[in-house]
Amino acid sequence: MGMESAIKGKFFVFDGIDCCGKETQARLLGDYLFDHPKDQYYKLLNVVLTRNPSQSGYTIQLRDSLHDIKDPYEKARVLADLFVKNRQWHIDRTILPNIASGMMVLCVRYMYSTLAFQQTQGMSFDELNKMHDGMPVPDAVFFVDISADECIRRKDKRLREEEMFEKIEFQKKLRDNYLRLKEQLPNHPIHIINGERSAEEIQKDIRKIVDDLIFSSYPKVR
To answer: Which end of the chain is more exposed for a tag (fewer CB within 10 A), N or C?
Structure first.
């Protein structure tokens, strides 16, 4: 039987409304952990950067369904079913195996996206939450929080064509539903991070939380 990992794997999630900077923060944390100043002796920290939806065939169905929907409140159940199936596939093949092998798994979007988006589309929290029964709870969840106005401003700056979920009224409701999840999911370690600052300031707050979680059980350096 092989030797167990020298450190316990961790699972960190970055989520929030569109254009909040969650991808940037995940990448910055990955770079920081891979060359962490407290890991220079043993070099035990290895990182997996991944995202929901993942690379399963469900993702293709999801993208096609999203492309065909014109009303942002249409086909909420269809989308929820596909997202949950995709997420379970991702958990079984990427997230859990890497945590078990001692990796630091950084995931952009997770169940919180479905809970927030499909609640905004009209589904109940209880129904959506039940669909995620048994899925692993992350070690820390970071909602990078920006206003709906800031979301639209960033989208306009990118000169992207408006998609069905990108209207400001929808984004306002969506943000409210994200913030509400902290109360709806009291057993999930959700941290609301002010995303209307520099990327470096945001990352500093995230690193403090992550460092405490990782190095509370890190082997003592000789």
So the answer is: N
User: Which residues constitute the domain of residue 201?
Assistant: 10-215
What order of strands is seen across the sheet that includes strand 140-145? 47-51, 104-108, 10-15, 140-145, 190-194
Do 29 and 106 touch, CB atoms closer than 8 A?
A: yes
Q: What is the value of pTM for the model shown?
A: 0.94
Inside any domain, residue 152: yes
- Position 74 scores a pLDDT of 82
- Does an H or E element contain 105, and which? strand 104-108
Looking at the 3D structure of the chain, how many domains does it have? 1
- Give the Cα-Cα-Cα angle 15, 16, 19 (nearest 5 degrees): 110
- Asked, for residue 5, whether it belongs to a domain, the answer is no
Q: How confident is the model at residue 1 (pLDDT cuts 50, 70, 90)?
A: very low
Asked if pLDDT for residue 90 goes beyond 80, the answer is yes
Residues near 23 by beta carbon (within 8 Å), at least 6 away in sequence:
14, 51, 108
pLDDT digits (tens, 9 = 90+) for 169-210: 899 999 999 999 999 999 999 999 999 999 999 999 999 999
CB 200 within 8 A of CB 142: no
